[in-house]
Amino acid sequence: MNIDFQLWLSKLVWLIAEPASLLLSIWVAGCLVLWTRWWRLGRMLVCVSALLTTAVALYPIGQMALRPIEDRFPPVVTLPPRIDGILVLGGVIDYDVIGKRGVPSSLLAAGSPRLDAFVELARRYPMARHVFTGGSIELIDGRDTEADVVRRIFARIGLDTTRIIFEDKSRNTFENARLSLEMIKPEPEETWLLITSARHMPRAIGTFRKAGWPNLIPYPIDYATDPDRPFDSQFRMGYNLNYLSEAIREYMGLGYYWYLKRTDALFPGPDAPKPEGESPASETPAEQPAEPAAEEAAPAPADTPPASE
């Protein structure tokens, strides 16, 4: 299947499956059918949309679904003294606002948790290679790429953009992994940090490992759920709907990437899965050294006197 067609298809499917669009579509369909001879079906659709909307507004369904994804990769506590490269994924800016105005939401930071973490780590590891990967998120409009916008943001907050490698052709996570690998060509012994949102990390790390990136250290940030806070029911329609959209997007992305064999596991974790047919080292019997030949018994001397009776 052509990659461009896959991108169009994914956009179309998400346009339909996005919770707000789905709830609105059910309600509109019900209202239209009310004026036909299938008015009972219309009444049922309107009631279903009302019940689903109320459930989303009252119950933190999205947070419940999102927490297992974010718990997959805990926050990084310690880092090695040497890092060869730092890679941050795109999808971090409000393209219609920051992309046109060219300024971040704060002059003290990059305006995004991913970019803030990248700036901090780039200053902590100045000798490492610094990479941003993110191209155009538009299918038709040929405006500046996300890399172009981020370059201006980094320059505005004082980073030397000549030391940052910008990959500006990728449009999704799969292309992030493939195109940045072709551009950087990391050595097998190098250690790289991969920065992205916690909810996006399982799909990202699985895709990058599948593409051939070696020795990746996941650096998840921008957690949206609290592991110690119990779920409570409050009427927060927009808040809950946003979390539900994020959760559904990631679960659909994990399944879609697994179906297309773009990721190394259905639900990737910190440890890479073992290749098929490879047995653990502990199960391979070690080669035993050859036993030394038994020493021949020395013959008794001929003049040994017989033992007394």
Outline the structure in words.
The protein is of the alpha/beta class and 309 residues long. Among the domains are: 3-58, no CATH class; 74-223, Rossmann fold (3-Layer(aba) Sandwich). Helix content is 43%, strand content 8%. It has helices at residues 3-17, 19-33, 39-58, 61-71, 98-101, 113-124, 146-156, 173-184, 201-211, 237-259; strands at residues 85-89, 129-133, 164-167, 192-197, 216-221. It has a five-stranded parallel beta sheet, sandwiched between helices. Helix 4 (61-71) crosses helix 10. The longest helix is centred in the last third of the chain and has 23 residues, at 237-259. It is elongated and about 70 Å long. The protein starts with a helix and ends in a 50-residue tail after the last helix. The model is unreliable at 280-309 (pLDDT under 50).
